[in-house]
Amino acid sequence: MERRSFQSPVTSRAPSATRYKPRFAYRDSLRELAPVSRSQSRARPGRTVDIGGHGASNRHESTHAPTSESTKVPGPPKPEKDAIKDEAGEETSENARVWHVYNDEAQKADTIMTDGWSRSIDVLLVFTGLFSAVLTTFIIQSYQLMLPQAADTTNALLVELIGLQFNDTARPSISQSPQSSLQQIRWVNGLWFSALAFSLGSSLISMLAKQWLQAYLPNVSGSPRHRARQRQARFMQLEAWHVPGIINALPLLLHAALLLFFAGLVLLLWSVDLAITLATWIIVAFAYIFYFASIAVPLFYPECPYKHPITDQLRIWLSPDSASPSPPIFAYSSRKATPEEPPKVIYDARASIATYEDAVDATALAWLFNKSTDHDVVSAALQAIAGLPRDFSALRILRDAGALPLIEHGFQSCFHKDTTVDLQWHLVDPDSAELYCRAWMKLTRGTTEQWPFDIVEPLWMLQDLNTHPDVAAIASCAVALSSFDSHMSQWELLAYLARCSAGETQLSQTTQCCLLDSISECFVRWEMPLAVIEDTVLRAVPVLLRMLHLTEDLPNSKVRSAAALALYIVTCGGIVDLGMYMSEEKRRGEYCELMIEALSAIVETPARFGVQDALLDIVGGELARLASPIVAQSERFPQRLRIVARSSLSKLYVDGRIAQGIVPDSILADVLHILFPPAYLSQAQQSVFVTTLVETLDTSSHPDITNWAVRLLEVLLSRCSLIVSQAFVESNGINAVVRAARAGAVDSRRLQIDSLRAMCAFIASTTSEYKASNTSHPALEPQFDVLFQSDFFETLCSVVASRRWWLFEVSGHWLPAIVELCHIRPEAKVGQSVVKTFKEFAERNVGEEGYSETLAHLDVIRRVSEEVVS
What we know:
- The chain is mostly helical.
- It is 62% helix and 2% strand.
- It has a domain at 97-148 and 179-322.
- The strands form two sheets. It has a two-stranded antiparallel ribbon with strand order 1-2. A two-stranded antiparallel ribbon has the order 3-4.
- The protein is elongated and about 175 Å long.
- It comes from Mycena alexandri.
């Protein structure tokens, strides 16, 4: 089909500054950026990238690091026992390997923990029983000392009797052994009864703790991730309710009871025998000095073999920062940075309060890589971070748990640095290195963290790994996210997407999403001269359009939503909270809005974005597909967006990039629906638009297309200029609209009305132009000839005679146009048949609104016809 074009009524946007400033930011970006210790670019010096016109790219690597050709890459490492290979991006899915590892490690750890606590409680219960029995024996004796004794009364009376029998000088002396006072006896019994209460209370809590431990290990079924979440949730609640502290504190009750017993024993012996008391006191003092020393010494010397649960609990209380890396979830809901601590996050919507499921997953991974001493287990936990969803809300938990340094160390372990000969890095495990790269980007995206300089050379090596394109692409993403001052690193991401869209390189969907998200991130935080930005935009838009075209048949593809967001960021300006678009649901929910804005900007100035014929066809197809949601969900789209879409679709429709055969009929019908009423157009644009609509009427039999094309013609032909009416006639519009009217007799009453209205609008505009010229207009005569030669009058009469119409429609729209036409061409022999048909129609509607007007119009037509005859 021939391409037609017209000037877009929307003026093109001009750059407002010569320096690019970030146009998109999360809400946290409004605060001042914190100073960054590692702020230099990680892009390789001298590296150049060329993106070809068809998506091909040629990279010229510098000699600052060994290339893949000079690096011997060994085969894949020996698979671990029972290892499960996860698909890219599925490292944390329901059946991912990390959850199998977690469940195995958790089962071992829980078994050791609960068995240890259970054995300790058993020993505690045995000691409590023995101690309580011994203590009860002492209490039975000491308690008797507090009660009145009959023997004591008898002895006192005997002493008095003997005193009466002898005088004071002759009274015999009675020797008495030392006796404890009543106050002393009360203290002894108080201490011993307290010790018994401590001992029995310890046994009661111990029995409850045994029940808690039994309930901690239920048999949970389900997927590996479900079982891991259930276990981690129980473990978090165990710590949140201080169950370990309670169990570890149980011996303290017995130790306190023993101390009270010894105190009572020393107090009882104090007034009886000083030597025995001192000996007992010294033994007890030495025992408790050793007891407290065995608790305190491990606090200062962690390697000391004096292990004690009380020491571990004291260490947690005294140094909470060095305690478990996975604190309860409740600790993260109110966490705030101290004023002295500079903020490390530029923008990160995921830094908000974590959802429960994400917090459980994060604490599970943190528990795994902090508690385990197995290198394979730690690696599995760290690499699983690469598969976390984009909108994972608990990344702060992992960062606070120290995941980032461990990831950097794990990445370094994937290489071997030869320090004997060439001082070069040699790649050992490219697959693990790629996982560590993705995990690093997941944790640092939106922060000021940059790739460490001491391992940047291995990262450059991964970029040159041609045998592993996914690995090389992910490494390029890591470099780009650490090099916002280097446009070459951004262009390299475009080069990978260009080769992928051209079919030269096969990249996984996860890698493509990572590349697109990295491009979005770079454009968010990039600050470059205007010339570099315009050059990058010129390269980026065609690549992103091809990526969208590749996923045309995959509407639910994550690549498609990521490409749409990147295209919107590259083409459109304004301040946007990008944190909202971390969620895949949010991206898909606003896909139409983003694409309408982006594609409309491209249609407005295609040359600025490097978009030519083939790509404009892609733009037209994409924008046309967005017409259906705009029509079906009109309340969702604001009026401004509908106006933008109407302007762009008008241009594409007139250019012939949206037409029958190019897009499905249902989509074309929705496009015409959006174009009604048409946007403001110049006379030249209106003439092209009318010609295109007539072509659509001629080639389409779809009822909705016909209906909306006729309605658009009615608006365009109303009070139109001579150029527009001439275009309508020359494109055979009269016959096309008349055919639509005849088709309406079977298909649609509405189509008949719209068709006749369109023809009457054309007649009114033509006759008005004719009368305004004062003389015969040579350009209008052929139009009248075509009109009278057509079947318009015959069709009009048949339509009026076949159905019942609203009389005001006839008198207000149809007859006035016929009257004006009869004045211009009174010699045409159409008045008699028209008068007869309309007369009969008026007689069937006597008294209705418009009846008198109808008769008046018919009288005028009759008089004009009679004057010609006479």
